[in-house]
């Protein structure tokens, strides 16, 4: 089953709600770690290596949207947002920042469990179908807008295809976020936006790349990104 021994990090400062959700998920054979302080969330996620993160939006010291944005520069597993705010703006912003799903409060535990299981199954299926980046050749057909890794066609959005094609065209060059924003997104980089980082994270997932030991897309501290041709 997708939920067997899966570890979840729950970032929630409402102690009563956190205990309720954690107990319900533990009864369904998940391992759950609760983090009550937004400022401690990212360090805990790096240390615990969860299969999924449940993230409240309203947190002390660092809000959920900022955490989600920062996580998506390196964390490739599912993120589920919880929000008590009314309206749809936070949900849209959260999804644009890289969240995989969201639920409104008060949380219905059975619905939460169903969403968690769905996200984990989807994540496992993606990982299982990703070809090995170290043994596959990447080819890009810019006329038909098709990218293949080995003999498998990659399922890319238009934005992801444009970014990958630009990176590959400029392989070996250090590309800043400003350059990528201007050349690929046709917008100026304001120094705060994480659109490029989110897209890079999703490309890495679809390429089967590891952000910690990258084979295709390397992060260059203080600059941006570097695409490395696979000579295997």
Folded structure, characterized:
The chain is an alpha/beta fold and about 230 residues long. It has two domains: about 5-130, Rossmann fold, CATH 3.40.50.2300; about 140-225, Arc Repressor Mutant, subunit A, CATH 1.10.10. The protein contains eight helices and eleven strands. The protein has helices at about 15-25, 40-50, 65-70, 90-95, 110-130, 160-170, 175-185, 195-205, and strands at about 5-10, 30-35, 50-55, 80-85, 100-105, 140, 145-150, 150-155, 175, 215-220, 225. Strand 10 (about 215-220) and strand 11 form a beta hairpin. Helix 6 (about 160-170) packs across helix 8 (about 195-205). The radius of gyration is 18 Å and the shape is globular. The chain starts with 6 loop residues before the first strand and ends in a 5-residue tail after the last strand.
Which terms summarize this structure?
232 residues; globular; 5-stranded parallel β-sheet; 8 helices; 11 strands
Q: TL;DR of this structure?
A:
The protein contains 8 helices and 11 strands. The chain has 2 domains: about 5-130, 3-Layer(aba) Sandwich (Rossmann fold), CATH 3.40.50; about 140-225, Orthogonal Bundle (Arc Repressor Mutant, subunit A). The chain is of the alpha/beta class and about 230 residues long.
CATH architecture of the largest domain: 3-Layer(aba) Sandwich
> What is the third-level CATH name, the topology of the largest domain?
Rossmann fold
User: How would you write the strand order of the largest sheet?
Assistant: 2-1-3-4-5
Q: Tell me the strand percentage band.
A: 15-25%
CATH class of the largest domain: Alpha Beta
Overall number of domains:
2
Derived structural class: alpha/beta
So what's the oligomer here?
A: single chain
Q: Main β-sheet, in a few words?
A: 5 strands, parallel
Radius of gyration: 18 Å
* Proportion in helices: 40-55%
- Which residues form runs of ≥5 with pLDDT under 50? 131-135
Distance between the termini: 35 Å
CATH superfamily of the largest domain: Response regulator
